Target: ABC transmembrane type-1 domain-containing protein
Amino acid sequence: MDLSSAIDFVLQHAQVINFSGSIIFGLWSMINFLYYNHVDKKRRSGYLEIGEEIVDIPPTKLEYLILVSGFAQAIAGITCAVFAVLKQLDDIQISYSWFIAIGWIFQSLTVLISTSPVSIAPRYFIYLYLLEIFNQLLICVKSNSDMLVANQVLLGFNILLFVLQIINPVKNAEYLSKHLHNGRTPSIEDLASPLSFVTFAWVEPLLLLGTQKHLEEEDLPSLSKRDEMNYIITNWKRFRVNRKNSVIYDTIIFSLRYAVFQQLAAIISTILDFAKPFFINKLLNWIQQKKPEDSLMPGVYILLAMFLANCTRNVLYAHIYLNARHWGMQIRSVFIYEIFNKSLRRVAGATDKDKKSAKASHGRIVSLMSGDTNEIRYFITFIHTLIIDMPITITLSVLGLWYLMGPPAFAGLFVILITGPLSALIMKRLYKIMKVIRSFVDRRIQLTNEALQCVRIIKYLGWEPQFVERIVKAREDELNSRLKQVFTRMLLVIVEWGASVMVTFTSFMFYTVVAGHELDAATAFTSITLLSMISDALSDISQTVTQVLDIRVTIGRFNSFLEEEELDKYTDEHTNMPTETEIAIKNGEFTYRTAPSSEEESTFTLRNINIDFPSKKLTAIIGPTGAGKSSLLACLLGGN
Model:
């Protein structure tokens, strides 16, 4: 079915489509009204939650105009419904008019109850306006003369409301800046209008300011609330209550809405990628079949459609990466919190003689918090490429080549089967190198931290050369491993690039030489575009697989750290303690926890400890060096 056939089908069934749309419009408006009438106050659009306080946000002048237009639309809808009854139109038109009128009445009531004082209608009204604009356009095309003027009035109101909604900011930015942010600009992303948000126009003021001066901290707007660490961790702790799943699994569920949006948008944008070869084929076929007396408008329509599809794809891609940045920031914040929280509860490491049971060093913890969490955040940004882009691109490209060239198109795919095992061997080697690199990075960070923490002793004893030699040696080992990684990656890229070139060459050779087909312009240029898309996908496989292997190592390190043994929690075995004493130790014996293989070695032990800490009084722990003062405090704090 081509475009003209689809338009004819819509026009022929316009009445049924309009009636269905009016039912959806009316029911949706009614549900919105009922929801907003019972929803919690802080969930409504004109309120903002500041800590435990719910603050009213006054409306702007534009928001009052939206309200007036909404009431005018409701009155116009009722007028059309009454007019349809008086003119004794058919039942479908009467029902349609009443559904629309009822829908606008509920929308107006929703605007009134959604905020106090009155503020903007909910943002999803935009979709209702689009639905109603589509319905009214169909009616204006198919309507009789009696209802034409009324429908044109309704269409004008819908267009006006739609334009006002897409240019209206989310909240009163001037009020927020003055009263809630101490003069600092609120998050420009959160306050952007729908049109500004879609087109990224909200970034323009900051970019313009950056061209005029060096940006200072006070020039930057406030961070979006959803990116604030406190907001993320508060929701995370609330989400984790009574959940026994792994942190990795719960993190995915916790941020599922970001993942769903990214993958759905990636599906649409990947399909729009094929608008280019599709319209190229249509344009070249039209040029080949065009006669001198034919109109040029079909070609103009094809070019316009290709332009719009490409613009839509680019906007979607931009929002995919913006969403991915928010998603990655949320996951990174959760992981840093879990690592830090675990580091306070974990048992101290094993002795050097027990390497197998050795726990994470301070260097490894620092590496997990800085490097590994950033690796996860970076991988999240491009995860749609692995899950959506490459599979759909390769599948649709192969199907397109089959449609254009037939069986000869599959000749080039045998090249992939040949180079596949070789690529797998290289990837396996690359994975081993990455694990070695991570261990060298942990060792280098650990040595650097030791040198910084003990710098006074090192300077006093003159041990600088020895420590510098150890750090340099660790760095050289890391660089040598990274050099192996670079050469291995280069080999993988060469194999993947060579495979993509051979796929193109083999496909065209079998199509022209073996099958004996003539290669016309439409087939040639469309096939080249599709083969180029396959080549790009195959070339990205090496980088994507590298990221997957890297993230596999990272997740393994993260899980092994979280699975380390934790400290035993104290339990109060004495309920008859004196009221003036809150903390006490009776006949206590404490020793440092060691690895099982080291139990026979002597360790420092505090024995026969009896002490009371009076409530609301100062208690001092004094004694000579090595007497155990710090060890006693560690016992009180639950240290190991």
User: Anything to note?
Assistant: The CA atoms of residues 346 and 566 lie 4 Å apart. The chain has three domains: 3-168, 247-562, 581-637. Residues 3-168 form one domain. The chain is about 70% helix and 5% strand.
